[in-house]
Write a structure and sequence with these properties.
- The protein has about 190 residues and is of the alpha+beta class.
- The protein is about 15% helix and about 30% strand.
- Strands 4, 5, 6, 7, 8, 9 and 10 form a seven-stranded mixed beta sheet that branches. Strands 1-2-3 form a three-stranded antiparallel beta sheet.
- It has helices at about 5-15, 40-50, 160-165; strands spanning about 25-30, 35, 40, 50-55, 70-85, 90-95, 110, 120-125, 135-140, 150-155.
- The chain has a domain at about 20-60 and about 70-160: Lyase, Ornithine Decarboxylase, Chain A, domain 1, CATH 2.40.37.
- It is built from three helices and ten strands.
- Mean pLDDT is about 75; it is low at about 15-20 and about 170-185.
Length: about 190
């Protein structure tokens, strides 16, 4: 293979739009959006707020036995915090959806709502009880900002109440605010809600 072929191949790979394999049927992936059944997930999220869901039939890939309906959920969530490493690069991205409430295909997550610029980096998508070793790493642009929208396909149907944010995440408070404050009413315990 010559240098020209390598350059042409790289350019073609950069310009191609990936096929909507794990996304619902009739999904179109663009550079800045995901369209499910002709409806923009970016516009739906901005109108309804996040997290938001769209459930549709799975594409005919031959992976599922015929005669049964198989569903895929498209989840849109917003970036609410970014944890940087010592080199100033994103290490963890916290979103406003509970990823343990669904079965996300994290490797297929996409930034929507604006063109992605810059290099893509592997970051952990949180909150989830799974660790980066469990496969919750995603490749997102290095210039991810607070408020950016991320679309994630999830296996099977998912209810909105399953992915709405819960308040108990002590790992968000990594600056010591979660430590015991010496409350004099220790015999009563803390509220478990």
């Amino acid at each position: 293979m010559t240098f020209f072929h390598s350059v042409a191949w790289e350019r073609g790979m950069a310009l191609r739009v990936p096929s909507p394999g794990p996304w619902p049927r009739d999904t179109t992936l663009t550079a800045t959006d995901v369209l499910v059944g002709g409806r923009s997930l970016d516009q739906i999220a901005r109108a309804e707020g996040t997290p938001c869901l769209r459930i549709a039939e799975a594409p005919d890939t031959g992976l599922f036995p015929p005669g049964r309906q198989h569903l895929i959920t498209a989840l849109v969530t917003s970036v609410e915090a970014i944890s940087m490493n010592s080199r100033g690069r994103p290490e963890e991205i916290w979103v406003d959806a509970e990823l343990d409430g669904c079965r996300p295909r994290i490797s297929e997550a996409r930034l929507i709502g604006r063109p992605a610029s810059g290099r893509r980096r592997r970051v952990a998508l949180r909150p989830t009880t799974r660790t980066a070793l469990d496969g919750h790493l995603v490749r997102l642009p290095a210039d991810v900002q607070l408020g950016d929208l991320i679309a994630i396909p999830c296996e099977g149907p998912c209810a909105l109440h399953d992915v709405r944010r819960r308040s108990y995440h002590p790992e968000r408070l990594d600056d010591g605010r979660w430590a015991d404050d010496g409350d004099e009413f220790t015999a009563l315990g803390r509220c478990g809600k």
